Amino acid sequence: MSRSNKKIQSFFLYSMFIFYVILFLSIIVFKYVSPLELLSNNRPDYRSTNLVPFRTIRSYLTGNADISRTVILNNVLGNIGLFIPLGIYLQLFKRNKRIPASFLTILIISLSVEIIQFIFAIGAADVDDILLNCMGGIIGILCYRLLTVFMKDDNKIRTAVTICSSIVGIPLLFLTILLLINQ
């Protein structure tokens, strides 16, 4: 790969990673409040807590949750889906590609998010979210590992991740911009 092609690839890869981090923070941490409102005393508190594993998931599966199926699907698939790229990016960017090390990083990030949501009253601090987030992270790690089975060369894997990130990320970026403009 030529030097200019490598620079273009790196630009797209890191741009999509930065967009992912911004999207991640806006969905997970700043869902109800902007970063500027975070320390304001005049904002409403959004806080609920569940420390019992599988309580929320069980209520979803049994139909005991007093919310719509759409909200349930968004919560479950959102928690899983939002952490899949994290698992992939961790494997791509970290020198230590061992699964336990990446899993621990995902667990720490997920736990940190739940603690932040609780401390700042900006969402539901739920142990089931941590379980779902970790499941998504593991799926991402396994997707990366599957790539390594078919592509032995790290440059090819990096190219594949860049292409997939761009295919998903660029339309999502434009959609996000359109939604922000129309608010």
Number of helices: 6
Q: Stretches where pLDDT falls below 50 for ≥5 residues?
A: none
**Major sheet characteristics:** 2 strands, parallel
N- to C-terminal distance? 42 Å
Strand content: 5-15%
Strand order of the largest sheet: 1-2
Rounded to an integer, what's the Rg over CA atoms? Answer: 18 Å
Structural class: mainly alpha
- SS elements, strand count: 2
Average pLDDT level: 92
Order of helices and strands: HEHHHEHH
The percent range for helix content is over 70%
Note the quaternary state here: single chain
Q: Overall 3D geometry?
A: globular
Task: Spell out the key features of this protein.
single chain, mainly alpha, two-stranded parallel sheet, globular
Outline the secondary-structure elements:
Layout: H1 3-28, E1 46-50, H2 55-62, H3 69-93, H4 99-120, E2 122-126, H5 127-150, H6 154-181
Parallel strand pairs: 1-2
Verbal overview:
The chain is mainly α. Helix 3 packs across helix 5 (127-150) and helix 4 runs antiparallel to helix 5. It is built from six helices and two strands. The model has no long low-confidence stretch (mean pLDDT 92). It starts with a helix and ends with a helix. Helix content is 73%, strand content 5%. Strands 1-2 form a two-stranded parallel ribbon. The radius of gyration is 18 Å and the shape is globular.
